[in-house]
Design goal:
Length: about 350
């Protein structure tokens, strides 16, 4: 049995992770931390968890975390980097759902997150946790950087074409929409219901922290550098990411050839669903499930449009973290993740 701990268990990502881990047949959640809620039962704050144990929040205790097999950090950036080196030294594996280890370049991290990276040796050891493209590395890792939610949807959509060198360098566009849970659980005036309902707005158009992550990973998959325009939007919904991706083909491909490329690349991938050509996947079709649904369009010859949808809290965060944990401990990748999406 894997003894796991969650640092930062009161946010949406942390409690979603707990929801997935509690029924996992090979996991015992031994610790869940929160300074503000220490001593209080978790199910008093999240009643959907009633009947699944009697866990209480505890203050972060390094001595207690040192005794675990794996520790998940569902914390803001800057937290995991301070604790990961000590945990690794004790033989504890670490999965960071924040941003501390996603950018391999410490200078790039400092530029986009406004702080120096305080654990450069751990950063050098970290592996990017997108199993569909880094399965072997994740399986051998002690420290995994769980991808961002937007990057997961964008990378899974663009990667098959880029890996084959089929997209022109210019004109790569990722036009993305997210539910408000992606902004976290902290109280903010701009995220309360009267502010977000009946409205859509773009943000981070001139530069968003997920852009360098997307560019770095897609550059690695393609084998050479690239740039793209990434524009996120806030939608009046709780969960979900919809990525509409645009690219220009280097050479003509038929609709059938495009479909076959994606079908072959993701054949056997338990959490990527390549839909029939011309489909329109909806975010509601992945709500609560660890799956990315992808559909292809070619509105005019050579112009490809890829639609990619995920649940930002599951495949975009907690579900992918469990998928990575399964790989790290040589368990079946689907274990604890066979959830059918919720409808309506």
């Amino acid at each position: 049995m894997i003894r796991a701990g969650i640092v930062g268990g009161t946010g949406y990502t942390g409690v979603e992770l707990l929801r997935l881990l509690l029924p996992h047949p090979e996991v015992e959640v031994a610790v869940i931390t929160s300074r503000a809620e220490a001593g209080q039962r978790v199910d008093a704050h999240f009643p959907n968890l009633r009947g699944y144990g009697d866990l209480c929040y505890t203050p972060p205790d390094l001595a207690e975390l040192d005794t675990l097999d794996v520790v998940f950090f569902a914390t803001p950036h800057g937290v995991a980097m301070d604790h990961a080196p000590g945990l690794l030294a004790k033989g504890v594996r670490v999965i960071d759902l924040g941003a501390d280890f996603r950018l391999a370049d410490a200078g790039l991290f400092a530029r986009w997150y406004g702080m120096a990276h305080r654990a450069p040796e751990a950063l050098a050891e970290a592996r990017y946790g997108l199993p569909e493209y880094y399965r072997k590395q994740v399986g051998e890792a002690r420290l995994v950087a769980n991808p961002g939610c937007y990057p997961t949807a964008v990378i899974l959509g663009f990667a098959p074409l880029l890996a084959e060198g089929l997209l022109e360098d210019g004109g790569l566009i990722a036009d993305c929409k997210s539910g408000v849970s992606g902004a976290g659980r902290a109280a903010r005036v701009d995220l309360i219901f009267p502010e977000v309902a009946d409205s859509v707005n773009a943000y981070g158009v001139s530069g968003h922290r997920h852009r360098p992550e997307i560019e770095a990973v897609l550059s690695d998959i393609r084998g050479s550098g690239l740039e793209l325009q990434f524009t996120p939007h806030l939608m009046p919904m709780i969960r979900g990411i919809h990525a509409t991706l645009y690219g220009q083909l280097r050479r003509p491909l038929s609709d059938a050839a495009l479909q076959d490329l994606f079908a072959r690349r993701y054949a056997g991938e338990p959490f990527v669903d390549v839909m029939p050509f011309g489909s329109h996947p909806a975010t509601r079709s992945v709500r609560g499930a660890n799956v990315c649904r992808i559909a292809l369009h070619q509105p005019r010859p050579g112009r490809v449009v890829i639609l990619s949808v995920i649940d930002n809290l599951v495949k975009g965060a907690a579900g992918q973290a469990v998928q990575n944990m399964n790989r790290m401990f040589s368990l079946p990748e689907e274990m604890g993740l066979a959830h059918i999406a919720l409808l309506p």
